[in-house]
Design a protein that fits this description.
8-stranded mixed beta sheet, 5-stranded mixed beta sheet, alpha+beta, 3 domains
Length: about 450
Amino acid sequence: MQQQTLVNFQNFIIATRDSGYKSTASALAELVDNSIEAGATKVEILINKVQEQGVEQYEVLIIDNGKAMSEDELNLALQFGGSSRFNSRNQLGRYGMGLPNSSLSQCRRVEVVTWKKKGEFLSNYLDVDEVIDKSLTRLPKPKKSTNCVFSIQSKSGTIVLWKKCDRLSFKYLKSLIKHVQFELGRVFRYSIWRGVEIRICGETIRPFDPLFIGEGVNLKGGLPYGEELHYQVKIPNNEKKTSVVKVRFVELPVQEWAKLPNEEKRKSQITKCAGATILRANREIDYGWFFMGDKRKENYDDWWRCEVSFEPELDEVFGVTHTKQEIKETEFMSSILVPDIEQTARALNNRVRLKFIDLKRIQPQVFSKQQLERNDMYLPPVKKNDGLVKKNNGSLKIKGLEYEIVTKELKRDVFFDVEEVDNCIVLTVNTAHIFYEKIFKALHSRRINNIAD
């Protein structure tokens, strides 16, 4: 009986395409990691539509000006698990799976061109279809050339080309670019702040700071809460040395931003984004509700953020996988971080809750308007009364309607009245009604705490 190989390469290459990259941006982030490790200061991403055998497809090009690869390094770069830095804990990469794994998760053919100086180009490729039909069982020998089909600006660098792209996250180019811009801007915000330029289709990617402190496409206004926490953690398999885990918290400005329209708060990543950003070597690898213990997530938690930062030498204790897209809350790290993070999370939640109570007392109309906008589609039609009440230019427009809340004495014995005036929904609260004086006004002035009083 013929002895079988340890790995069936045809099945392996198919299976590795499902290796767990969340999106096209996540796969591209692996290549940007490689560029930054090679000392690149500029990374250009180009996405083009091409015709292949009468079928319109996308090609993705990633160009950097970093240190180029030698022939041996190029071969290792295209080999699964091949890396001159295998298991290194000094930089962003670790396993040598990044280039082939991420590329083939999005396309069926990846080509690499690298040059240490102009006129001396090395190139090689990996093709899924050639592996499946067994015409490619080993990596081809790199080709040497004095010319490059691509426009080269830097003295040295590397180009990665994705061809036969069949697994990109979005069908339409505009949506794909927008997706990549935001994700890479957030993931590599620290690299961009220190001077690395990342561009996509000619447009510079700006950073996004989920803490709302740094410069970028985000709003600015986050305020540090408390002192930054430092934890000395023993490095696995080297317990004589420790590495620092840093944790910090930020409060968002409730009084200023609570007035924003709900849609703007959502688009600005204020609401529905509670949690912690997890940084590995100042590169975001995950975002979510981590190390909060028994503290459940509430709407008030949208108004503060947490950042947890560690170095690659602590990968095992954070459960980091080779795709660098997620962590796992290991029992070891939870025992260290959860007590402080959960306690601080509860304190921040309470601070935010008290701020909203105070804000509702001072500016009740702001929150009433937002509640009306949120439920606009469920409201029954209201009577029209053209020209009775003049619209306020500061009122908010949602789905074609504006809302205005006014207080005045009404002749009828009703607590409030609703009418439509020039496409503006006007809610009039009757100041002469007994409920207004005894309950409504008393609650907002805090003369009573609840209706039961």
